[in-house]
Give the backbone structure.
Amino acid sequence: MKRSAILELLAQVERGDLTPDDAVERLATLPFEDLGHTRIDHHRSLRVGLPEVIYARGKSSEQTAAIFARLVSSGVDVLATHVNEATAKLVLAAHPQAVYHQVPQVLAFRQSPSTETNGHIAVVCAGTSDLPVAEEAAISAETFGGRVTRLYDVGVAGLHRLLAVNSALREAHVVVVCAGMEGALPSVVGGLVGVPVIAVPTSVGYGASYGGTTALLGMLNSCSPNVTVVNIDNGFGAAYVATLIARASARRA
């Protein structure tokens, strides 16, 4: 449940449009709701400003659909990551307004007003092979109300491609950079912009990339002090932190 929803609920009680008992009934699922297999943290939006997100891998289609439905009913923006097609089909049957993004396997349902924004985030990726992770980041940020600029296939093997989008980079409140192989791109971006850079190592590369570990270690050892790093392939985690940074920056502006 969002802060605005609780304020509206209290206003309805004050106006006499809603009885106190009815209001208590609606608030009964705070701070969490126990579905048996899952305890949904409805209080998270009130604490940190962003709702709980569903990690669908390892959950059954029915479990994911049940969690999705309860989050939708609470009025928050709903995001599920690592959603396979069978699960997406089940959820979409009940919530046709939701959108399934097949490449990053993300299912999103935005309920906030379109005028509500959380700052400007640039999502950058080194190559087309990094697109699933970059799109997970971009769609997650958009679902959370961020304005997202996508700058794709601008890796260091052709540095002129990155320099060509330098002005767009510098307009963002925060930059998310997804790269595999040796993971050099975030350091270069960090040297071009005066905002936080969130590096996302991807599991893209040949044998010695070790499933993204080489990129992860390279990014952790970045010489650009404005670069911080999330886990391998964690586009969602990068988007979450980027949204918090961008939102704070936009409010100060």
The chain has two domains: 27-109, 120-252. The radius of gyration is 20 Å. Residues 59 and 175 are 31 Å apart (CA to CA). Residues 27-109 form one domain.
